[in-house]
Amino acid sequence: MKALKVNGDRLWDSLMEMAKIGATEKGGCRRLALTDLDKQGRELYIKWATEAGCTVKVDQIGNIMATRPGEDPDLAPVGTGSHLDTQPSGGKFDGVFGVLSGLEVVRRMNDLGIKTRHPIEISVWTNEEGSRFAPAMMGSGVVSGRFTLQEILDKTDVDGIRLGDELERIGFAGDTPVTGRNYHAFFETHIEQGPYLEAENKQIGVVTGGQGQRWYDVVISGRESHAGTTPMHLRKDALIAASQLVLKVEEIAKAHKPGCGTVGFMQVSPNSRNTIPGQISFSIDLRHPEDDQLTAMDADLQAAVEELAVSSGSDINLKQIWYYAPIPFASECISAVRSSAEALGYSHMDIIAGAGHDACYVSDFAPTSMIFTPCLDGISHNEIESTTKEECEAGCSVLLNAMLVMAGE
Ligand code: GLV
Ligand code: MN
Ligand code: MN
Ligand code: MN
After folding, report:
1. What is the ipTM metric for this complex?
2. Which residues bind Zn(2+) 2 per the record (predicted)?
3. Which fold has domain 8-211+326-407?
4. Cβ(373)–Cβ(388) below 8 Å
5. Where in the chain is CATH 3.40.630.10?
6. 136 CB under 6 A from ligand 1?
7. Distance of alpha carbon 287 from its chain centroid, rounded?
8. First and final CA of the chain: distance in angstroms?
9. Angle, to 10 degrees, between the axis of helix 389-407 and the axis of helix 96-112?
10. Distance (Å, rounded) from C-alpha 57 to C-alpha 254?
11. Mean pLDDT over residues 45-55, rounded?
């Protein structure tokens, strides 16, 4: 089979057009899940997918499926897709590249008059980021059965707004059932979001799996009191205890290479300059590519919390709110990605995904793999996240060929 290339200019133009929705001053994007901006992004995408001849459906958790018919309608689709929601100070490519790569694949198939036996389906998964509503990967998680529809609809954001109400409000509480979804194969294209492809000077990452994650909510309760009158030895400062735990998280991650540990969200109460903090709520995110190591990190965290409760005299509530074990991708999809990169003459290497991706949950019910492309200095979840038209074209061209291998011409 002759390797085909996509139209990199058209893909880039669409990426830049989508990036206007929620554009930030430093050149990034803020398009939080289920906000008015998410609605605008979704509507633009649906317009483009419809113009490309796709049939569009929305399911009960707001996932958008755009389908290009195949010659045999009884065959399961070959799928691709990612997410349109972003971090609060996110970039232009995290997620969007995977969605618009799928669209460019369909547009290119249309240009070339390509017919496939299997239908082609591009998914936009709801709330991949997990930033406004935790945890992450909710849309794909509901479809895979990792979460129930009801538990996700009932999640609330930091202001107490219910996810299901926001879905209704923006008009994306669809009626296609979340159950019974099937793919012949699924591929997700994504920027790497890390430094390895750039360091190794490779154009394509052949993603063989994703690392596991554990997310926690922590509440530390000390005692509020006056900043000027309470002697240092009589304080129960919840922020001091929280700070010690934050450092412990770093220590635990460093002791379990290549594990990662992050405290990214924190609320201080009453958050007043001259009152000793009485209560701190924060998040912990632990990740590791090996499950036994992730379990060991969890055990170390539990032990650290017990020790700190005694030494600080504060009450510490640690609650795990999310866990999934490392995910191995399917060998036939990994091979399709690798052989497509080779056929196109792109340099490539195998890589494990450090970030969470919808593909991780899709792999519960379908053979799946991912295609990574480099990003500048390995920076993502940052407004300055950057990549080039050529890198996007390469990743999307690998996607086109891998999908064609699985969809049968
Ligand atoms: C989301 O992008 C994550 O990997 O945390
Ligand atoms: Mn992403
Ligand atoms: Mn992300
Ligand atoms: Mn992610």
Report:
1. 0.94
2. 94, 129, 381
3. Aminopeptidase (3.40.630)
4. no
5. 8-211+326-407
6. yes
7. 14
8. 10
9. 60
10. 45
11. 98
Q: Is 190 annotated as a binding residue?
A: yes
374 falls in which pLDDT band (50, 70, 90)?
very high
CB 173 within 8 A of CB 355: no
Tokens, residue 11: 């893909």
| Residue 357 Cα: closest atom of ligand 1 | 4
Q: Where in the chain is the domain with CATH 3.30.70.360?
A: 212-324
Q: How does DSSP assign 290-358, residue by residue?
A: SHHHHHHHHHHHHHHHHHHHHHH--EEEEEEEEEE--EEPPHHHHHHHHHHHHHTT--EEEEEE-S--H
Q: Does the domain made of 212-324 have the CATH classification 3.40.50.360?
A: no
The pLDDT tens digits for 118-159 are 999 999 999 999 999 999 999 999 999 999 999 999 999 999
E strand spans, 83-211: 120-124, 185-191, 204-210
Q: Is the CB of 129 under 6 A from ligand 1?
A: yes
Full-model pTM:
0.97
Tell how far the Cα of 137 is from the centroid of ligand 1, in angstroms.
8
* Angle (nearest 5°) at CA 205 between 386 and 75: 110
Q: What's the average model confidence in pLDDT over 306-310?
A: 98
Q: Cα(409) to centroid of ligand 3, in Å? A: 33
